[in-house]
Amino acid sequence: MQYLAVPFNPPASRDSTATAAAADLNALIARHASDGWEFLGMDNHSTVVPGSAGCFGIGATHPYPVTVSIVVFKK
Length: 75
Description:
Blueprint: E1 3-8, H1 18-33, E2 38-49, E3 64-74
Antiparallel strand pairs: 1-3, 2-3
C-alpha cells in the first residue's frame, strides 16, 4: 500500500469563507482521486519557526508558530 501526504493551504484572507476552503479541499481530493488515490483524512501539524539574532541585533526576528494542514491519501 502506498501513502501520499499533500499540503493543503486554503486561502486566508478577510473575504475567504469556509465554503471556499471546502471547495478547494474538494477539488484537491477529486484531482488525486482521478489518479487512483483514496482520501484518508486531513491533519494539522504545528511547529515553531526559530527567530534570528540578526547581525549585532539588527534585523533580529522573534520565533513564531506555524500550523500546516496535510491531506493524506492511500492507493
